[in-house]
Amino acid sequence: MRTFSGAVFIAALLVIAGLAAAQQSEADVTEETRRVFEAYAEHHDTNYYAEDAIFIDMTNPSVVIAGRDAIAGFIGAFYGGAFGDGRYELQGLVIEGHMAMQESIFKGTHTGPLGDIPATGRTVEFPFMTSYWIEDGEIQWGHLFYDSATLLRQLGVIE
Questions:
Q1: From edge to edge, which strands make up the β-sheet containing 138-146?
Q2: Burial level of 25, CB count in 10 A (0-12/13-18/19+)?
Q3: What confidence tier does 14 reach under pLDDT thresholds 50, 70, 90?
Q4: Do β-strands 138-146 and 49-57 pair in parallel, antiparallel, or remain unpaired?
């Protein structure tokens, strides 16, 4: 009968402990992602974005909004800018590892310019989805998905 040496036994325990630690760290990553996302989402506080983060409005993916200040300007154009009372209602949220994805409905009254579109006074309501990669306590990138034609129809810009 063959027996394992103490060194082999300890090495096996270290491997098993390492696997358990790796599984635990994935749960820790998900929890950190949740914490950062929820803090950001409460007031769209762009300080949760990395200084060199990127954001893409997927209705025009060739335009990359780069840097925390530029992202703050883009988000501010919707929340409090073009839509003074802009808000969203969360419909669903999935957070796993570094990824956070939300499905929501945006609602607001068009009280300020939105790009070249002057204020119309119209109310809008449209679904959107965002995905974020969160790492080291900061949002590294975000992608926004929505039907821009629905928004433009509600503003009376197109039929």
A1: 64-66, 49-57, 138-146, 123-135, 99-109, 87-96
A2: exposed
A3: very low
A4: parallel
